[in-house]
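To close the chapter, one final illustration. This time we ask the reader to focus less on the individual chains and more on the assembly as a whole: which components sit near each other, and how the overall shape emerges from the parts.
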Amino acid sequence: MSARYAPVGWNVSKIVYDLVLLGLIALYVGLFLWIAPMLQRVTAPLDPWSIRMAAYGTCAFLLLTLILCIGPLARLDRRFMPLLYNRRHFGVLTCAVALTHAAYAFDWYFMYSPTDPYVALLSGNTSFGQVQGFPFEVFGIAALLVLTLLAATSHDFWLGFLTPPVWKALHMSLYGAYAAIVLHVAFGALQAARNPLLALTVLAGLTTVTTLHLLAARRQRAADGARALPSNDPAWLIVGPVDAIEEDRGIVVPIAGAESVAIFRHAGRLSAVTNLCAHQNGPLGEGRVIDGCITCPWHGFQYRFEDGQAPAPFTEKLALYRLRIENGQILLDPRPQPPGSAIEPTHVDRARMP
Amino acid sequence: MKRDVFFVGWSPRSALPMIWFLGAMLLVLAGASAGLALALGSAVNDPGGGDFTGDKVVIGVMVTAPYPVIVTDPSPAFPAGHTVLLSGGGKRGVQDQAAPLAGQRVRATGAGVKRGEIDMLLVDTLAAEPGNAPVPAERDLGVWRLSGEICDGKCVLGVMRPGDGPTHKACANVCLTGGVPPVFVATSPVQGTRYMLMGDAKGGRLPDALRDGTGVIRRYDGSVRTLGDVLVFRADVAAAVGR
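The assembled structure is written out below.
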């Protein structure tokens, strides 16, 4: 597992994930377009463009809501981890659905006029000084630009090119896109809606996303190891008892003013690495040791327990940290060693010997 | 405490311990997708009864202010004195074609659109027609204060369903900029109708300044006149803009 640039590194999990996602989108859009109109109580049916706009628009909102729920859900219950694995494909599909919505809206509302359609899009409604009739299109355009940017840079090439911290920061703008979509709906469809269902759906989505993030943050704070304490030796911090770490598991040690450190236990030894996976800066400390390798919970990237290096032929390296054990307590030198430095894992049993 | 599971994407077997959970989640997602699609897809605003009425031939006298209309001769399709609003293809008016024919008897063909008592023709051909063309007299119905929405006549009469409301505001403005006749949809009927052709206080085209008012319900003062069997609401633009 490592970064090798191919259009898509397909495997069974990704194929199943994408098929399920496409199936759910097809189910939603199909029922919205072809079955729901039969249930409408209207004098005359809505025009097909308006129905398509509503179908793809609501679908994009619901998909984005789901995407934003995946991260906290996976933190709250590891059985949601499979949803996280292929989240980038989820994002790209969501962008495609949003673009479909935008294409129908653009075609229906801004084409076929003496005004250039792009000029019409930007000048059709300029009532920025009023709440009712506010140009809600600007929020949709902003969200679409962000979604398109994120979809275009979702590939591992961009991850490597931009570096994981920049890439991750860029992709956090998804929250901004979600806020823009909520505003797009609030100033647009909700202003026109005479039925409260859409408002309730948007409110439920927003509440769910917010609540899950708060719960996950609380859980994370509780799960993180206590902040390391100073020891008699100023170069070392006291992490806690050795027995606090289960076999083949890790703990996350927050360090004041620096990146957190992940300490793993495997085969009677301890090894400390940066908590940031070299792939997407995923939380390594929440991973496992599998086949002698520290394995990231997000995408399964692996690093040898002994030296923090990805197994050949891959080349990623993690920064390691020095550890020692005194009186059953783990002591950590919080200064990261250069990636690839050889630091022998600390033997738990040997250290316990008087 | 949840079962100790750890999914690794490249190892599908790692999903086996949670296969029942994933199956249940899939069922929940499918059920929610279906339920939401049916609920959101059916809970729509009623767009009203406007619709296309097929190909039409309209013969009558051309009036071009505030917007081009034909006040019809009697025919199997229309009674005498019926007013048919004119629009072009797409989001365009027919001012350029209509102007040389002002006050003349004309023959127009195209697709008809109708909502309530108001007819519109989406003009395909427009030409002078032999014969007399008495310009219909207007009747002043006095000054009114009306609440309602400024719409573009083409969309609100049935070309788009829905063709009104805030989500349609930009489209309405693009249509009006293109010359499509504006229709004022009053919240309460005037002389039995809620749909009126709209112009400024002097009987000219609706000024751009009023386009903040499209797509939303607002109150306007102005005079109401008849033009054939259609009402024309001449809004006091200065008062409306300052409001």
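Chain B touches chain A through 63 residues (CB under 8 Å). Chain B has three domains: 12-42, 51-128, 139-242. With these observations in hand, you are ready for the problems at the end of the chapter.
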